[in-house]
Amino acid sequence: MSAETTRAAPTPPTGLAAAIAAARALHAVRPILSAAAIHIERIAFRAGATVVWGATGAADAHVTRGRDVAYICVDERQRGTPRGRFSIAHELGHWLLHRDVDADAFERIHAGGAKTGRDFKYEAEANTFASHVLTPHEVFAPMCCAARPAVADVDTVARAFGVSLMVCGHRYAEIAPSACAFVESYGGQISRVTRSTAFRGVAVQRRKLEEGTAAFALANGDASGEGWRVVRGDVWGRDGIGGAEMIEHAIAIPESGAVVSWLWHADGRGDRGAPRSDGADRR
């Protein structure tokens, strides 16, 4: 028997890797050729889930699961919005990734009460799945190539794909060849950071925002933090950034309590200006 025939089968991906693999598998069946072709309700239907619009209580959406089919109920008020599209994709992720999870877990998640560590894991996996379904790499990556991306560039891509600035910001920074980062914070503390490989700064998750950042100003009720400003590199992490200046564009998202910052390097080239976001859904 040859070594080839005795080689162990590859280990199936788990966690976030499994979520990304599941999203890619959906699009492999019917490749997406443009952003306009991402019809999330049709994608869900082909995967065995029917979308129903109606009242959903305190949750944006929830999924009712059967053996071979599912019904995704989404808040009627979110029809046609980036939030509604993301909710469909998120619940589809639960349907495809978490079929063996007991119903009590989803009751806790949708009720908005106290969650277990495993509940947060399920939510992170469904969010990752949704992001990758709505922004497939093959058509999303070519649009994330601005040499010095500002919030306006991210907003343009977000609108093309029908996703929020929040979703697009993390995905853009993940893919971009240029030096940029997207930072999400709540209550004055950094919650999630996505940096491009070229970004030289360090923003540490679960660390408090530093005074001098636009995000710090917004988190403390100072509206002057809204928009863009030049900041010292070291206020966004003291490792690996030196004294290089950065541009920070901070935006408050009142409905979620988040403050998000888009960062990129100034490098002394004089192109410091950045237009404000013009009102994209920011979830």
Structure, explained:
The chain has 283 residues and is an alpha+beta fold. 36% of the residues lie in helices and 19% in strands. A hairpin with a 4-residue loop joins β2 (61-65) and β3 (70-75). The radius of gyration is 20 Å and the shape is globular.
Task: Give the secondary structure arrangement, pairings included.
Elements: H1 3-6, H2 15-29, H3 40-46, E1 49-54, E2 61-65, E3 70-75, H4 82-97, H5 103-111, H6 117-134, H7 137-140, H8 151-161, H9 165-175, E4 180-186, E5 189-195, H10 214-219, E6 227-232, E7 245-253, E8 258-265
Parallel strand pairs: 1-3
Antiparallel strand pairs: 2-3, 4-5, 4-8, 6-7, 7-8
Comma- or semicolon-separated keywords:
283 residues, alpha+beta, five-stranded antiparallel β-sheet, three-stranded mixed β-sheet, disordered N terminus, disordered C terminus
How far apart are the first and last residues' alpha carbons, in Å? 55 Å
Give the helix level as a range of percent: 25-40%
Principal-axis shape equals: globular
Main beta-sheet annotation = 5 strands, antiparallel
Strand content: 15-25%
**Overall mean pLDDT score?**
83
Order of strands across the widest beta sheet? 5-4-8-7-6
> What is the chain-wise order of helices and strands?
HHHEEEHHHHHHEEHEEE
What is the count of helical runs?
Answer: 10
Instruction: Label the structural class.
Output: alpha+beta
| Low-pLDDT regions | 1-7, 268-281
Extended strand count: 8
Query: Using only CA atoms, what is the Rg?
Result: 20 Å
